[in-house]
């Protein structure tokens, strides 16, 4: 994909986000919903993804119309210093995602290699996946990369068909329940927060869309279909086998070496986006650095974290992402679409009202998590923060910290 011109079509975005959504992490997250049973689990998945993907695409529309990256767009509401702060948080969460994606992919691949060849070396697989992601980044502007990405999406689509056929063939799918406990509200939140985790990234790509329509609809269709499908596969696996790891299902289907290849491919195509956008967010603070070099460095750091840190579960990590970015983008989307503040003010250094309201939204998010609200936490928090900001935002001009040159 050539990320240097505004030439990306609806099909480009549909394949990009469909490929990004097909990952071991999404399948495993869907498996957490298994205690609800299949019918209620699917309802929570579709409801959460309908809301989450729509919010995601609204953030992408800003990137297309303003031709700016995701974290740069936060300057509209929070000012230059505010965007620096969120850029640092985003780099940290993307490094975390890079590490999580590498380690969960490596564990699945290691399980396959251990079964087939008694080769049990998690560190080796983590390093190999990290190297492949760096290669994918290096080829990102090569003319042949777009065709390679299409091939990858086709292979990943075949993976979803294989996993779906394995799940659908079980008689326990519609009558069974997974082990453990899960409320409907928590399930909805886990479905919302996955697309929300891409919100600080999407405009990094939609800024290169041919049109607003192509970027928005391509992204929405690609991610909604792909991510919902992955969650449902994980849900089904959690119900019938109490194990959502796709490696177990693929081994049971006697796919062996093919299983190893497609899990590595799915990990690389998804984690590439995390590493690339970590570099873009870094450039929001230090614009003189080379975008590709920084992305490669981010991948190397994420790979190192995956090797050193034993990451067992990331449900709390998803909640941490939602707690910050739900109120953040509630404020930005309110400014852009409701208050018609569509341009960055060059002299705006910080908007204290927006920053304080965002902090309050983070606290409120965890209150809704603790209350186990039936609609999760993201939806009510974004609605409440948006209403408050809409009412008081226009009356807090004195709360804005602007550069001294503009005051003069």
Concise account of the structure shown:
By secondary structure, the chain is mainly α.
Question: Would you kindly provide a written description of the structure presented here, covering whatever features stand out?
Answer:
The protein has 408 residues and is mostly helical. The chain has one domain (11-313): Hydantoin permease, CATH 1.10.4160. The chain contains 17 helices and two strands. Strands 1-2 form a two-stranded antiparallel sheet. Helix 5 (75-117) runs antiparallel to helix 12 (257-285). The longest helix has 43 residues, at 75-117. The relative contact order is 0.20. One of its GO terms (cellular component) is plasma membrane. It comes from Desulfosporosinus orientis (strain ATCC 19365 / DSM 765 / NCIMB 8382 / VKM B-1628 / Singapore I) (Desulfotomaculum orientis). It is found in: Membrane. Keywords: Membrane, Transmembrane, Transmembrane helix.
Secondary structure topology:
Elements lengths: L9 H12 L2 H8 L6 H29 L3 H4 L1 H43 L4 H17 L6 H24 L15 H14 L5 H4 L5 H30 L4 H7 L4 H29 L5 H18 L6 H24 L9 E4 H20 L6 H15 L7 E3 L1 H4 L1
Antiparallel strand pairs: 1-2
Rg from Cα: 21 Å
Q: Assign the CATH superfamily.
A: Hydantoin permease
**Alpha-beta content class:** mainly alpha
| First-last Cα distance | 46 Å
Which H/E pattern describes the elements? Answer: HHHHHHHHHHHHHHEHHEH
Q: What is the percentage of strand-forming residues?
A: under 5%
Q: Strand count, sense and closure of the main sheet?
A: 2 strands, antiparallel
CATH-defined fold name: Hydantoin permease
Question: What would you say the CATH architecture is?
Answer: Orthogonal Bundle
Question: Roughly what is the average pLDDT, rounded to an integer?
Answer: 86
List how many beta strands DSSP finds. 2
Read across the widest sheet, the strand sequence of neighbours is 1-2
Helical segment tally? Answer: 17
Which CATH class is shown? Answer: Mainly Alpha
Residue stretches low in confidence (pLDDT < 50, at least 5 long) are: none
User: How much helical structure, as a percent, in the residues?
Assistant: over 70%
Shape: globular
């Amino acid at each position: 994909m050539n990320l240097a011109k505004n030439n990306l079509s609806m099909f480009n975005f549909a394949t990009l986000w469909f490929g990004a959504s097909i990952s071991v992490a999404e399948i495993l997250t869907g498996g957490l919903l298994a205690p609800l049973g299949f019918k209620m689990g699917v309802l929570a998945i579709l409801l959460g993804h309908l809301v989450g993907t729509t919010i995601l695409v609204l953030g992408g529309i800003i990137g297309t119309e303003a031709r700016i990256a995701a974290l740069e767009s936060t300057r509209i509401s929070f000012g230059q210093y505010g965007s620096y702060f969120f850029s640092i948080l985003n780099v940290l969460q993307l490094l975390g995602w890079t590490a999580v994606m590498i380690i969960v992919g490596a564990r699945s691949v290691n399980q396959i290699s251990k079964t087939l060849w008694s080769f049990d070396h998690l560190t080796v697989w983590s390093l190999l996946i990290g190297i492949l992601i760096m290669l994918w980044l290096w080829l990102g502007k090569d003319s042949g990369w777009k065709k390679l990405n299409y091939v990858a999406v086709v292979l990943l689509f075949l993976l979803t068909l294989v996993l779906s056929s394995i799940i659908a063939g079980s008689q326990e799918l519609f009558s069974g329940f997974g082990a453990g406990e899960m409320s409907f509200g928590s399930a909805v939140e886990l479905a919302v927060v996955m697309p929300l985790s891409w919100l600080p990234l999407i405009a990094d790509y939609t800024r290169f869309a041919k049109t607003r329509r192509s970027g928005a609809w391509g992204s929405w269709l690609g991610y909604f279909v792909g991510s919902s499908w992955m969650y449902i596969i994980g849900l089904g696996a959690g119900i019938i086998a109490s194990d959502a790891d796709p490696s177990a299902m693929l081994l049971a289907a006697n796919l062996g070496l093919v299983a190893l290849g497609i899990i590595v491919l799915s990990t690389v195509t998804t984690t590439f986006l995390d590493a690339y956008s970590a570099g873009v967010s870094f450039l929001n603070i230090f614009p003189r650095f080379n975008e590709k070099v920084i992305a490669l460095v981010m991948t190397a750091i994420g790979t190192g974290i995956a090797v050193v840190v034993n990451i067992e579960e990331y449900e709390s990590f998803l909640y941490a992402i939602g707690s910050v970015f739900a109120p953040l983008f509630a404020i930005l989307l309110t400014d852009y679409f409701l208050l018609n503040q569509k341009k960055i003010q060059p002299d705006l250094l910080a908007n204290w009202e927006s920053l304080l309201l965002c902090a309050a939204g983070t606290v409120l998010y965890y209150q809704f998590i603790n209350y186990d609200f039936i609609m999760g936490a993201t939806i009510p928090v974004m609605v409440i923060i948006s209403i408050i900001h809409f009412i008081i935002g226009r009356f807090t001009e004195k709360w804005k910290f602007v550069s001294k040159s503009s005051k003069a």
